[in-house]
């Protein structure tokens, strides 16, 4: 009866992570002649004769699953490289930027690889890499992928070639789900509880693993369909790569809380393997660590380095990362470990195999983030606007020609805007932009001043024919915002986005453009039901749960009401005082109010079951699992003020305002 805490919370807890591909009918158009030319020109701009990365990505190959195909326990496909077989073609088709094609081919090299005797990597069996180390009594696993199915399959593949040994330790390098979500595919919780398996993570891991996606989760999840190209069929006119890896494994996530927090820059010996840690908090992730293995002379940089430009700003939306600090941590590992490292591995992409190349690679990565940071700030301090900076910031040729500095996931353009935003926020200081008309009205008036819809379309068709896709996409955005029913505008806007997608070097940009084109043509891609994430929900702090409630208050329903609710989680001994006033929900921990309108108490398990949709608040009250003293109406009254945000809100056209 009440749609309480259902899909929105669930989506929130899986944000950015789970997008089973929904294969749509292929309605795409071929690359235009202009696009073919632009892509052809890339071949002369970049060092394609340098094919070392392909040797590096194949080196140490041990074995692979046929087509890389992984089925989960219910027999659903969790991972499959067969739809990407089209990447076997030698040269890029007109509809794919050759530089992205190169990365897409590299990220199609999948299976189990030996790094050195005793250290292995499972690569391209999910978005990330799983590193497996043979210790004295068993295996140490670094980052068990995104889903239990792919992690289990990766470990099985290792067993096929190296024999079966127990997993004795798991290390999570950082708090992003593609580095922990598959943990239950490689260990079971009882063994962890029994002390047979230890799980190591950097400080703040649990908090950030959960927090990153709770408050803004619904918006991030929806926007992430654009970033990752969820729903785009793989193909030369569809999905080719995410830039960071081929795609996202599909299935539910798991999480087992760490048993051990790795102290700052500790040296630990785990099952006979010495590890020197280097923390890098507040950079690529809030909580992240790199590590050096003296016995192997191997440096693992987690996700602080990758064979490309990563995101300072991520286009699904997230807090801006600190490029300056990021660069400094790369320099730190360069100083501490480069002269002792023979091989550099990371938790995405392929290794660097020679000591000289490691220093060079780390210098390139260090300077890449620092250059974007410093030059953005330099231009910002001259008064240039984000759009000017994004357009004018060019990497020096010495970086530009490095494959590991190319923007496959992040781009110089959107990262520069991110750096600007970190310091200056959304406002460019021009008072005309302080309080402009809202988007739809601004678009309607703009189109009107431009001579009306028909005139704008006439001009835009000519510009489209000339290959001016950026401008056409921009003008059609106005036209569709002015009149979403204008079919011709939607089609032309889609055509422009599509050509931009075909030209994009970044997997993220290609996906965003092509999903945008698809939604202009066909409407919103409705994601498949996202699986429940019980492990993540159970790890949600109660206080964070109330924060998530607060962002769902409907101010009209809450207007003029003042409610105080005591909320106790009996088995945890947690008390909260919730206060709804001024259409705003706040809470205090460790406090109850003797004049509260209602006092509710429940066990955490009951709250978890509500989050997992096994029951609802009314049902749990009915069943006596939630005790409500004083006014039941006050409690239900609060719950009824909460709205459920739509998981498929419009992006390429105006959203419904209320
Ligand atoms: Zn990752």
Description:
The structure is a single chain. The chain is of the alpha+beta class and 658 residues long. It is 38% helix and 14% strand. It contains 24 helices and 20 strands. The strands form four sheets. Strands 1-4-5-6-7-8-9-10 form an eight-stranded mixed beta sheet, with helices on one face. A five-stranded mixed beta sheet has the order 11-12-13-14-15. The chain has a five-stranded mixed beta sheet with strand order 18-17-16-19-20. Strand 16 (563-569) and strand 17 (574-581) form a beta hairpin. Helix 8 packs across helix 18 (507-522). It binds zinc ion. Zinc ion binds at residues 128, 176, 178-179, 303, 348.
Uncertain residue ranges = 1-25
From the helix content, strand content and strand pairing, which structural class follows?
Answer: alpha+beta
Oligomer state equals single chain
| Percentage of residues in DSSP E strands | 5-15%
Ions, cofactors and other bound molecules: zinc ion
What is the general shape?
globular
Number of helical regions:
24
In summary, what is this structure?
The chain has about 650 residues and is of the alpha+beta class.
Characteristics of this structure?
658 residues; globular; 5-stranded mixed β-sheet; 8-stranded mixed β-sheet; binds zinc ion; 20 strands; alpha+beta; 38% helix
Write the layout of secondary structure elements.
Layout: H1 7-12, H2 33-45, H3 52-58, E1 61-63, E2 70-71, E3 77-79, H4 98-106, E4 111-116, E5 119-123, E6 130-134, E7 139-142, H5 148-162, E8 167-171, H6 189-193, E9 198-202, H7 205-211, H8 217-228, E10 260-262, E11 267-270, E12 273-279, E13 289-293, E14 298-300, H9 323-337, E15 343-345, H10 355-381, H11 386-392, H12 397-400, H13 412-424, H14 439-449, H15 453-465, H16 469-482, H17 487-503, H18 507-522, H19 534-538, H20 542-550, H21 555-558, E16 563-569, E17 574-581, E18 584-589, E19 598-602, H22 604-611, H23 617-622, E20 627-630, H24 632-640
Parallel strand pairs: 7-8, 8-9, 9-10, 14-15, 16-19
Antiparallel strand pairs: 1-4, 2-3, 4-5, 5-6, 6-7, 11-12, 12-13, 13-14, 16-17, 17-18, 19-20
Helix pairs in contact: 2-17, 8-18, 9-10, 10-13, 11-13, 14-16, 15-16, 15-17, 16-17, 17-18
